[in-house]
Design a protein that fits this description.
Length: 525
């Protein structure tokens, strides 16, 4: 998948996740307000209407009773009672419908309500108390009692209209009074139970609101965590191939062109990795070609240079007596340059043998104190010439380390020679050995010309000479540090440099004390 598609999809995922969480929040609050409004409205309206119903029952009853008190305007009074009776009947039918039918909800509100009740039941240990059975029973009672009252009132009015006062009174006392009493009781009971349900529901809803707040808060926290985790994983997935590429580039910097990038991604970075691998294999080819050419070339030069050296020596001895001062100077120039060329060729050939990184070592226990002292003795003429003071800071006369003696001698020779070469007259060079159980640290510190900061990373590269050292008339091929670092690495050691331009340089070598330490400590990797 392309990088831009990956980025697009990760952003899309995060946006969807975030939108869902917001949507959920909106649903929750909407459901809460809808439920609150619906329940409260329904119950309060029902209570008001049941109270009205009670009031109209009282009106009907009072007017009905007054029919028996005086016979004045009897027809008018009967008409009024009939009006109250019909009004009660009609209102009761409406009220019954309201009580029996739950408050109106849109279809989506009903769906949301189900989800809501599910969530509520999951988070709440308490279950909503169901009043519907009691309300149903009371509604049915009111219904039946009203039917009886209605019939009885109708019947007694029928007798009154026909002046059968005794029959009417009988109906009043036996059927109307008792039924009205019971009807009143049932209506009051209905009002009470609806009121109780209202209070209970409001309390439950308040509790739900509180719990929902908590659930929303926790869910949002979880969502934020998921988003953070997703962002972290996404970033890791994106940067992993870049890291692999970075490591590979680091390998090239230390002349390792055998690059194989692991777990290449299937995007632009993966393509870059493949291109980089191809580039490295081309670099390796050209490096091998360069080394082979250089080796062949130097090899071919070795024999003629040897002949020149021999011939010059013969010529010098043949004409030794009759040579003028200038002729002697010319002879020494030819000899000196011949020697530099031979040294260059030896170094080039020597360094080529280290190119593969596999240096053959013949280990033995070597007294490093003795080895360094020997090197200094060999360099004594130059040291003396420049009036340099060399301090050998060794805690003991014998400090042993398991190394290849000849190769380590070459390392110290190059490092101390460098310190002498790049130091001015009358300066000091300090050589220190610090012993640890498993490691040995050798420090060579001079007060010489130093190395420009930007060039420090390159001084271990083949044929590299710092710009400041080229300006002064110091001879060198730029191979000494390359060979030294390869030898130290082959021993499982490390070489480190610190330098300040114009002030001096410190080379620090760390060596495992034995071959075992190098192998078991993983120093050889
Ligand atoms: P060679 O050792 O092959 O005869 P060289 O001494 O110039 O030649 P290296 O020993 O590889 O080469 O050192 C590389 C470069 O690092 C030097 O040319 C010099 O610029 C810098 N350098 C090394 N040691 C020092 C030092 N002690 N002080 C200042 N510069 C140094
Ligand atoms: Mg050198």
């Amino acid at each position: 998948m392309k990088l831009k598609s990956k980025l697009f999809l990760s952003y899309l995922f995060l946006i969807i996740l975030f939108s869902f969480s917001l949507l959920w929040l909106v649903i929750e609050t909407r459901e809460l307000t809808t439920s609150l409004r619906g329940h409260v409205q329904q119950d309060v309206h029902s209570i008001i209407e049941v109270s009205h119903q009670l009031q109209s029952l009282e009106d009907l009853y009072v007017n009905y009773i007054s029919l028996f008190i005086s016979s004045k305007a009897a027809n008018k009074k009967i008409g009024q009672v009939e009006k109250y009776r019909k009004a009660f009947d009609k209102n009761w039918k409406n009220l019954k419908f309201r009580i029996e039918t739950p408050y109106h909800k849109a279809w989506y509100d009903k769906v949301l309500n189900r989800i809501y009740i599910f969530i509520y039941n999951t988070i709440s240990s308490r279950r909503e108390y169901d009043y519907s059975k009691e309300i149903d029973e009371l509604t049915q009672k009111v219904d039946q009692r009203w039917l009886r009252t209605n019939e009885a009132v109708k019947k007694s009015i029928y007798y009154l209209k026909r002046n059968r006062l005794d029959d009417a009174k009988y109906i009043r006392d036996v059927r109307v009074k008792g039924n009205v009493k019971k009807l009143r009781e049932s209506l009051t009971g209905l009002n009470k139970i609806i009121g109780e349900r209202g209070i209970k529901k409001s309390t439950e809803l308040a509790m739900i609101a509180q719990k929902t707040q908590w659930v929303i808060f926790s869910a949002e926290a979880v969502i934020i965590l998921v988003i953070l985790l997703a962002a972290f994983i996404g970033a890791r997935l994106l940067t992993k191939p870049v890291d692999a590429l970075k490591t590979a580039i680091g390998q090239v910097a230390v002349q390792n062109f055998d690059i194989k990038i692991k777990n290449k991604s299937n995007d632009e970075i993966g393509e870059l990795g493949t291109a980089f691998e191809q580039l490295c294999s081309r670099l390796k080819e050209s490096e091998t070609y360069k080394s082979t050419m250089l080796s062949q070339f130097t090899h071919e030069m070795k024999a003629p240079l040897g002949s020149i050296k021999q011939a010059v020596r013969l010529l010098e001895t043949s004409f030794s007596d009759g040579l003028s001062k200038d002729q002697k100077r010319f002879f020494s120039i030819v000899k000196e340059n011949n020697e530099s060329l031979q040294k260059l060729i030896t170094n080039i050939l020597h360094s080529a043998s280290y190119d593969s990184g596999k240096v053959r070592l013949s280990y033995s226990s070597v007294n490093i104190v003795k080895l360094i002292t020997q090197v200094c003795v060999n360099l004594a003429p130059t040291i003396k010439q420049k009036a340099i003071k060399v301090n050998l800071n060794f805690a003991a006369n014998e400090i042993f380390c398991e190394v290849d003696q000849d190769k380590m001698k070459e390392v110290f020779q190059n490092l101390i020679n460098n310190a002498v070469k790049f130091s001015n007259e009358n300066t000091v060079i300090d050589v220190t050995i610090a012993e640890k159980i498993a490691l040995l640290t050798i420090i060579i510190k001079d007060q010489g010309i130093g190395i420009p900061k930007k060039e420090i990373p390159y001084i271990f590269e083949k044929l590299y000479r710092a710009s400041n050292s080229k300006k002064i008339s110091v001879k060198g091929t730029g191979l000494g540090l390359y060979i030294s670092s390869q030898i130290i690495r082959a021993h499982g050691g490390r070489i480190h440099v610190e330098s300040e331009l114009g002030k001096g340089t410190i080379f620090k070598i760390t060596l495992p004390r034995t071959k075992n330490v190098a192998e078991e400590g993983g120093w050889l990797t």
